[in-house]
């Protein structure tokens, strides 16, 4: 019997993001991001909380690196808060050396512990001032120019020590949740009960386009000016979950599954790997979907050294009859938890959108390999919340059986995909710490570490932290 395994150069670790863990929201020169403003607007975050303190990681850098080391992590993915580095955000605004120092120390501490840093430039905390000045990524020229300058400042400060860069985390979430549903900052939507401004039928497509052009521009700069002397690589992280047909016999549901993945993933990945938006999107959206100029597509096409993959769950997909709504962003279809026969896609987590279904991970890895020419894939997030975790007695919470099973199943599916020839080289579990889960506030915990928000943000390992380690120690071949 042969057991499936991972190659010796496979790397694993954990991921976090600045606004979700750092706290210290007004220290050492940091100014507000759109998430500070949004979370302090009534009714935007379910439990009325924000990231003012979060996990207090800004003050616990050594402790968190020691924690990572104790878990055996080989890699740590974190993000940089733009409003710490350039508090006002713009290309002519002052650089805040104190902000850079924090990240520089973090990188040094990681390297000293033998842990490789993977750095995300943008994990949603846009300087609030740039939103006030020109509505952030709705203004392509301004945003690209400001993001480019910010990226250069970070490359210059951390460049030779950091070898793996991610431009944007989940442009789908930025565009759709920020500019269509209004669930995330800056909260724009067509629904006037939720927001005084916004057009969910047009803005997400404009924002997505800006992010692609900004990504392509920064990758071009990195490759021309930094890559050789720093020896690193750069890509974008896309989120996307798997789709199974509601009625496996209905070709319209089968087609809708492909369309759902195209609207979620290929929106960004097709321009990067194939130089154009998917036909299904052009067909539905017409000229509401921007077109690339020759100059833009030259920057975007071929702009990934690796494919960053965030993946959590799966849905059953049912096609819709009739014309799509003006502000439809999904591809004229429904996301369901049960199929035609009443089978559930997976057990409930604590998040309304997340039900584990590990076979979908293997299938999506294969789908990506087939559609994009077997690119090198880094899984930059995968994990789950646990239903009711917040209210459990501590011993039950720490023995997080649901999460342990999730990691066994999902990491097992990853290994199967690798054995089928998918070129996957890294896996980062979301998340190192329980943290600020955006519009769910602190109700959903994703950490392999319990953070006791009521007692000075004390960290206590959950059992899943050692399960992840044992899995990779078992699966990665020694040579
Ligand atoms: C990702 N959805 O966000 C983010 O990259 C993380 O910051 C976040 O904590 C993690 O996943 C867990 O949620 C998502 O509603 C947020 O489909 C929401 C959705 C998907 C991803």
TrEMBL record:
InterPro entries: GH, GH_1_N_CS, Glyco_hydro_1. This is beta-glucosidase. Plays an important role in cellulose degradation. Shows hydrolytic activity against several glycosidic compounds. It holds the Pfam family Glyco_hydro_1. Belongs to the glycosyl hydrolase 1 family. One of its GO terms (molecular function) is cellobiose glucosidase activity. GO terms for biological process: cellulose catabolic process.
């Amino acid at each position: 019997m042969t057991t499936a395994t991972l190659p010796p150069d496979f790397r694993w670790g954990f991921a976090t993001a600045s606004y979700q863990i750092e706290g210290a929201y007004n220290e050492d020169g940091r100014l507000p991001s759109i998430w500070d403003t949004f979370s302090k607007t009534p009714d935007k975050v379910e439990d009325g909380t924000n990231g003012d303190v979060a996990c207090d990681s800004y003050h616990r850098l050594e402790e968190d690196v020691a924690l990572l080391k104790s878990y055996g992590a080989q890699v740590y993915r974190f993000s940089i808060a733009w409003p710490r580095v350039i508090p006002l955000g713009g290309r002519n605004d002052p650089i805040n050396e104190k902000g850079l120092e924090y990240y520089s120390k973090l990188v040094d501490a990681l390297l000293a512990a033998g842990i490789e840093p993977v750095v995300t430039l943008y994990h949603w905390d846009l300087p609030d001032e740039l939103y006030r000045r020109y509505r952030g990524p709705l203004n392509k020229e301004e945003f690209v120019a400001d993001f480019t300058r910010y990226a250069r400042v970070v490359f210059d400060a951390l460049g030779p020590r950091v070898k793996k860069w991610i431009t944007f985390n989940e442009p789908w979430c930025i565009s759709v949740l920020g500019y269509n549903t209004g669930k995330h900052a800056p909260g724009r939507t067509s629904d006037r009960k939720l927001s005084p401004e916004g057009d969910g039928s047009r803005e997400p497509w404009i924002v997505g386009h800006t992010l692609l052009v900004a990504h392509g521009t920064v990758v071009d700069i990195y490759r021309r000016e930094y890559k050789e002397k720093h020896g690193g690589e750069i890509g974008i992280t896309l989120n996307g979950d798997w789709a199974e047909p509601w009625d496996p016999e209905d070709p319209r549901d089968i087609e809708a599954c492909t369309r759902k993945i195209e609207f979620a993933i290929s929106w960004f990945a097709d321009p990067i790997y194939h130089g154009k938006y998917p036909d299904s999107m052009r067909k539905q959206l017409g000229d509401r979907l921007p077109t690339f100029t020759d100059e833009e597509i030259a920057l975007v096409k071929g702009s990934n050294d690796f494919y960053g993959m965030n993946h959590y769950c799966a849905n059953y997909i049912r096609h819709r009859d009739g014309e799509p709504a003006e502000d439809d962003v999904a591809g004229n279809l429904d996301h369901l938890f049960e199929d035609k026969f009443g089978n559930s896609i997976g057990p409930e987590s604590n998040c309304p959108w997340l039900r584990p279904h590990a076979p979908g991970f293997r299938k999506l890895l294969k789908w990506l390999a087939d559609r994009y020419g077997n690119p090198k894939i880094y899984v930059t997030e995968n994990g789950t919340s646990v239903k009711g975790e917040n209210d459990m007695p501590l011993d039950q919470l720490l023995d997080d059986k649901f999460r342990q099973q999730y990691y066994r199943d999902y990491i097992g599916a990853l290994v199967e995909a690798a054995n089928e020839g998918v070129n996957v080289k890294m896996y980062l579990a979301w998340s190192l710490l329980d943290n600020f889960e955006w519009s769910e506030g602190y109700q959903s915990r994703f950490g392999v570490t319990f953070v006791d928000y009521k007692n000075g943000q004390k960290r206590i390992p959950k059992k899943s932290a050692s399960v992840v380690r044992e899995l990779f120690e078992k699966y990665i071949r020694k040579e």
